[in-house]
Amino acid sequence: MGLLLWLVFSSAHASWGVNMTPGATEVSRSVFDLHMTIFWICVVIGVIVFGAMFWSMLVHRRSVGQKPAHFHESTTVEILWTVVPLLILIVMAIPATKVLIDIYDTSESELDIQITGYQWKWHYKYLGEDVEFFSNMSTPRSQIENRSAKGEHYLLEVDEPMVVPVGTKVRFLITSADVIHSWWVPALAVKKDAIPGFINESWTRIEEPGIYRGQCTELCGKDHGFMPVVVEAKSKEDYADWLAERKQLAAAEKELTSKEWTMDELMVRGEKAYVTACAACHMPGGEGLPPMFPALKGSAIAVGPAKGHIDIVVNGKPGTSMAAFGKQLSEVDIAAIITYERNAWGNAVGDMVTPKDILAFKQAQE
Amino acid sequence: MSAVIDPGHVGHGHAGHDHHHGPAKGLMRWVLTTNHKDIGTMYLWFSFAMFLLGGSMAMVIRAELFQPGLQIVQPEFFNQMTTMHGLIMVFGAVMPAFVGLANWMIPLMIGAPDMALPRMNNFSFWLLPAAFGLLVSTLFMEGGGPNFGWTFYAPLSTTYGPESTTFFIFAVHLMGISSIMGAINVVATILNLRAPGMTLMKMPLFVWTWLITGFLLIAVMPVLAGCVTMMLMDIHFGTSFFSAAGGGDPVLFQHVFWFFGHPEVYIMILPAFGAVSAIIPAFARKPLFGYTSMVYATAAIAFLSFVVWAHHMFTVGIPLTGQLFFMYATMLIAVPTGVKVFNWASTMWRGSMTFETPMLFSVAFVILFTIGGFSGLMLAIAPADFQYHDTYFVVAHFHYVLVPGAIFGIFASAYYWLPKWTGHMYDETLGKLHFWMSFVGMNLAFFPMHFVGLAGMPRRIPDYNMMFANFNMVSSIGAFMFGATQLLFLFIVIKCIRGGKPAPAKPWDGAEGLEWSVPSPAPYHTFSTPPEVK
Fold it and tell me: Which chain A residues have a beta carbon less than 8 Å from that of B470?
């Protein structure tokens, strides 16, 4: 036991930190100051009240021969200890109100990013920039299942972080595609619920380049604990380069739809896309978690006619957790995933669904 | 009605007759009983069984969180454990324990022969095993039990919920009916059956706090019933109360839930306030300081509890003015709560104190509950709450008000009145051991949660980054210690029932109240002739 404790407590990343950090923005620092102010007020009150109680417990005991007094009422002190706390509260409410008003001022933003929560990933869309992408946790299963050593940013790392420029007022428009999530980055002091059917606003202005990490903070189902938020703040120039690169990538991605794909190419891409988009529910081996998340291995849809398979992936199944992926994923990824699902884990339909088929299916729907 | 009344019970009011018969024999005594002491005993045993069940689920949670990585359970099951732990502790352990104490003690404290509505009393108890049998059975159903947290936010609990949700809804309905009937019974008893001379302002504070709790229950349990009924409609009958896709509003769910939920947290603490207000004066040998202000403070807390619900929802995006209103209203609760704490401290001041187990639990109650109150005050500050909300800081906060609050209040009450219930003194040495191990275990388990919460660990996650590892391990060790200690309590209670030093009618020299005027153990029927209160 002692050895075990020593091993854990001496490990490099373990921390004995006991307090919030001031964070990386003006707002986060004022929130931190508020937090410390209230904390010290509570400490002072605590020392006085508990001090009196402990003094009393030491001195006013029968074992030291103390005879009980009989006082049991005093309107004066009752009024006193009603009014004094009230005044302390008013003193606390003033700075809190100021900070709150500041936090609610989302006007005059220079960059708008729409954040959409999905089970269990985030989607970031740079409004007016034609750039959008999903952000998935990148910690491998093997680390979670203790089969390999855990990295420094275990569970707090993603494939595509949100990138923002420093010194810029960034407004977040936060919503959800399924259940309620909550987008939180402690260093920015931004925590806002992502609610289906609502768009919540929040904002930040980061001063220093750096990587800021957070997590989903509203229970959103099975993988709630595996839905990190990573924000990378870059200098304005680096941000501009990054944005240009993302735009090129997006254009290249669109061209892929018209490319002639081979079965092998689709299977390789399909496996990768399946793992990020589908495996959380249907499991990497396609066995699912029935009855909430049905198996795909040997399922009637996955080995049935291709049209039905395309339909459920593109349109989802209302009233269940199966989301409509038609707008979430590219035609290429949808085609690759469907092809993969029809030909993996012993499903051997042998046919191939191409990005053009998906495009044709979507156009026929419109 | 009169045709089914047991002839043996008809003669209750006639003096001289009622001393000749005791309880019926065998199992049917417990099934059919309308005696407030029997029903109180059953409530207390039931709640203790639920406490152990809900506690064992907490042990699963803490075992999984002992180290980073997934070791023992998978996330789906982890979520079922957190959900069931919350539901069972709130509805199965704390609330029935207080109803049990009310059943046993309120008639004895106000000089009433029994509860006002004895048959309903029986029914409201027996609904509970049915409700919890149903709730726990969902764990064995295909797809598992409720996994959406004890707050069951829609649409996670509706569109995305497991199939067993319908059973969960039915179980909540049964618990709600039971609570409402129990509350009506308490209110009716207090308002109608007080002994001559027992005016409202002479009632013991436990009776006062329960009267106010009764009204809170009657006001909010129907709101919970409405909430789960809307869920049922959404799931099975095609309505869209909480579904944005159908024009509904997921935030409406949270408003309705917390309109119930916030008064609910006071339902779980007010009776403990009352019990502690009896115990501290008894062991300080000095009358309670500020009785009148205690009553008013309780009423003020109850009133405020109806206008602060959205402080649970500071991050859902309510408008600035709403945010400010709920922040100020929440901060105001600190005033009457502070009055109570100051009154308790003043009661101790210049008393002649001894520290038997009930007093130890009561003093720990005051100190640790106040710590929970401090973190509550911090949480009330909306901008700071954006950092605290849904982190382990919140978990630390509500465990500090519920464990040393509600649970220690119940332990204090149990030790204080066990001699009256059983006719024996409990083992004082073991009682003190139970206190100290609970005290150390509880603080070890919950205090570090403040730290990991402030460092950024969200609640309800089965796995975490290494930076949270140290304090999580400390928490788990404390939780195992606290959990194991409760088996000692079971042993102490059984030992006390089976024997021990015979208890006099009034085993505590400083205690006040009518309950100490009847022999120990309290006879099956008491106050058939009402006592005169001067």
Answer: 8-9, 14-16
CATH of the domain at A23: 1.10.287.90
Task: Please give the average per-residue pLDDT across B369-376, as a whole number.
Answer: 96
pLDDT at B270 > cutoff 80: yes
State the angle between helix axes of B75-87 and B36-64 in degrees (0 to 180), rounded to the nearest 10.
150
Of the candidates B83, B158, B178, B485, the residue annotated as catalytic is: B178
Three-state DSSP at A135 gives: strand
- Is residue A45 domain-resident? yes
Which is catalytic among the residues B37, B262, B420, B434?
A: B262
Q: How far is CA B414 from CA B324, B498, B499, in A?
A: 41, 16, 16
Per-residue pLDDT tens over the stretch A168-196: 999 999 999 999 999 999 999 999 999 99
pLDDT (tens digit per residue) in A193-205: 999 999 999 999 9
- DSSP states of A32-100: HHHHHHHHHHHHHHHHHHHHHHHHHHHHSBGGGTPPPP-----HHHHHHHHHHHHHHHHHHHHHHHHHH
| Residues spanned by the domain of A293 | 259-365
* Residue corresponding to tokens 């200890």: A81
- The token pair that represents A287 in the structure block: 């066995």
Question: How many Å lie between the alpha carbon of A161 and the closest alpha carbon of chain B?
Answer: 18
Q: Looking at this predicted complex, what is its ipTM? A: 0.90
pLDDT mean over B220-227: 97
pLDDT in tens, B14-71: 444 444 567 888 889 999 999 999 999 999 999 999 999 999 999 999 999 999 999 9
Average pLDDT over residues A317-334: 83
B269-523 belongs to CATH 1.20.210.10: yes
**Chain A partners within 8 Å of B163 (Cβ):** 291
Q: Tell me the domain boundaries of chain B.
A: 39-261, 269-523
Residue holding tokens 């709450």? B385
Burial A28-47 (b: 16+ CB within 10 A, else e): bebbbebbebbbebbeebee
Q: Quote the number of domains for chain A.
A: 3
Q: Do B389 and A145 touch (CB under 8 A)?
A: no
- A239: domain CATH number is 2.60.40.420
**CATH superfamily to which B39-261 belongs:** Cytochrome c oxidase-like, subunit I domain (1.20.210.10)
Give the predicted TM-score (pTM) of the model: 0.91
